[in-house]
Amino acid sequence: MDTLLDISHIDMAFPTPEGGFTALKDVDLKIKKGEFVSLIGHSGCGKSTVLNVVAGLYQATKGGVILSGREVTEPGPERAVVFQNHSLLPWLTAYQNVELAVEQVFGKTMSKPAKKEWIEHNLKLVHMDHAMYKRPNEISGGMKQRVGIARALAMQPEVLLMDEPFGALDALTRAHMQDSLMEIQNELNNTVIMITHDVDEAVLLSDRIVMMTNGPSATVGEILHVDLERPRDRLSLSKDAHYNRLRSEVLTFLYEKQRKVETIKNKTISTGTTAKTA
Ligand SMILES: Nc1ncnc2c1ncn2[C@@H]1O[C@H](COP(=O)(O)OP(=O)(O)O)[C@@H](O)[C@H]1O
Ligand SMILES: [Mg+2]
């Protein structure tokens, strides 16, 4: 396999007051150019930690990340991140938010008119050209995520890292965003790692779904190859037997093999005649 991104035998331990907490143990994953890979797993298993190590925000305790033959040691624009909460600067317009990223990456190499064209092109890709001069508080949550994606794409990253990018959106908006992302990926052939806990989203968008075991010491449990033809259409897929088989494999992993037992701290506070549970 022609590997673009090599997440090589990563351990990640965090110092805590009670000693080291091993969040990840021997996470090993190779991703090739143009691949769309989803990370799925229960909340708290370590998905964001994997992404943060790839982003260069965390340094792995053991192992490392190699992108295009270079070791990742710090954050860089070749690994653009889209977070669940848009993280746009509120005092800047959509255009200016994208411009900031373009200046960072192409400040010295692109002419002024070329930059303008490039910013507009990327906002158009996410269908935000009609609201370029609006500020984040003047647009919806879905639109803010669109701008966040435009900003990431405008950096022309080698790999696009997305941490539950649509997690805060309502179901219909999320479906629109997924369709847009598929369209964009079809056009640009980006390499993407996306974290999700939405099984349908994972199957619809991915070439591979990496299913993580529960933590501590979380690792790659199983990898599912999603060999559905592209372009994919959610409506026809919902009636497709193979789609439903793939979907049920992920569900089985999550809810049978890695069933999460929530530990709820039951503190009984006696308040006279009634007992409250907090
Ligand atoms: N900076 C940190 N310091 C200590 N523990 C952390 C830190 N970041 C994450 N963790 C712990 O690592 C585990 C995995 O977290 P995370 O990667 O955020 O999970 P997920 O994204 O799958 O919900 C959790 O138990 C979390 O509490
Ligand atoms: Mg997370």
UniProtKB/TrEMBL annotation:
Q: Which PROSITE patterns match?
A: ABC_TRANSPORTER_1 (PS00211), ABC_TRANSPORTER_2 (PS50893)
The alphabetized UniProt keywords are: ATP-binding, Cell membrane, Membrane, Nucleotide-binding, Transport
What kind of membrane protein is this, topologically?
Answer: Peripheral membrane protein
Looking at the record, the residues that make up the ABC transporter domain are 7-239
Intracellular or extracellular location(s):
Cell membrane
The family assignment reads:
Belongs to the ABC transporter superfamily.
The protein in question is named ABC transporter ATP-binding protein
What organism, scientifically named, is this protein from?
Psychromonas arctica
